[in-house]
Amino acid sequence: MANEAALLESPTATETLRKVLMRLAHEASVEINVQDSTHLDDSRKYLPPGARIYISHLPKQAFADTLRVCAAVKAAGFDPVPHVPVRLLESHEELNKLAGGAGGLGVKELLLVSGDYALANGPFDNVAEVLRSIDLRSHGIERVSIGGHPEGHSKVELDEIRRAELDKARIARELGLKVTFVTQFFFESAPFLAWARQLRSGGVSADIRAGLAGPAKITTLLRYAMRCGVGPSIKALGSRPGTFTKLLGEQGPEHLLTELAEGAIEQPQTFQGIHIFCFGGYVRTCRWLHGLASGEFRVSAAGELIVR
Question: 136-140 contacts: CB < 8 A, separation 24 or more?
């Protein structure tokens, strides 16, 4: 670990800010795709044991592939959280088979999302219907993650999204499941912090994780942002390229992370952690997180976070 005194080159780099940044990095969850599973052994030197690894569900991916990667994640010493787009489930039997298979592998948490599919393949149109139709705890599933949309969704009215967020959290809590909101990645902190505080003011006690784009080239971020339907903050990628380069650079979301850490210091209960999207750079992302968690960074006089 770099000498901490040497890293504190600016009065703005307070010990409180450093501790929050280090905690957020140490406790971060990471999202991978099935191809990234070949790099799990490499990531063990960067991520702490038990780190949450979310496994995405790409188009045409079979749930059997997801379970195979869950087994690999578990074997590497991490906590696998598979994505389950519920509109792809063809029957109640498939849901029970998937939950049972995941639980049999030691999976304790599922990420339940509707999925951006116009029509359901089977009986489930939304997450609430799945929660009401199965006893996940009987399969060993103790926790659920659900999607959060601070910037709304391009295909769903905002009021409907907000109602659904509250309903899903309430239903899961009543079923005895621990709930975590995981957001789509974004590029501006204010909408996220306002959304999280709105949830808190509405009595929602679920954990909240802010989705951030990990280290990547600007062109890669733009491509994924367009594909994933990122909200209004996507404008930072196109209309203000100079500002965005300063905001995220090509190394990681340092400026955005600093703003979130400051928000956490101001109101500690606003959100609990961060969730990092790798975009094919899994090991690079893990290395970047390790640098932050180990304190190998400095904050310049201008307030810029620089990870070594």
Answer: 136/99, 136/110, 136/175, 136/177, 137/175, 137/176, 137/177, 139/96, 139/99, 139/100, 139/102, 139/103, 140/103, 140/104, 140/106, 140/107, 140/108
User: Across the strands, what pairs with 53?
Assistant: 30, 80
Q: What is the dihedral of CA 64, 68, 71, 72, to 10 degrees?
A: -160
Tokens 């000498």 found at: 3
> Would you say residue 236 has pLDDT above 80?
no
Element (H, E) at 55: strand 52-55
Report all structural domains of the chain as residue ranges with CATH numbers, in order of start: 4-307 (3.20.20.220)
Residue 5 tokens, joined: 């005194």
Tokens of 106: 């030691």
Q: Token pair of 262, please?
A: 């400051």
pLDDT in tens, 244-255: 444 444 556 888
The token duo for 83 is 């994505």
pLDDT digits (tens, 9 = 90+) for 171-190: 999 999 999 999 988 888 99
Burial state string for 71-108 with b = 16 or more CB within 10 A and e = fewer than 16: bbbbebebbbbbbbbbbbbeeeebbbebbebbbebebe
Identify how many contiguous H helices and E strands the chain contains and give both numbers. 13, 10
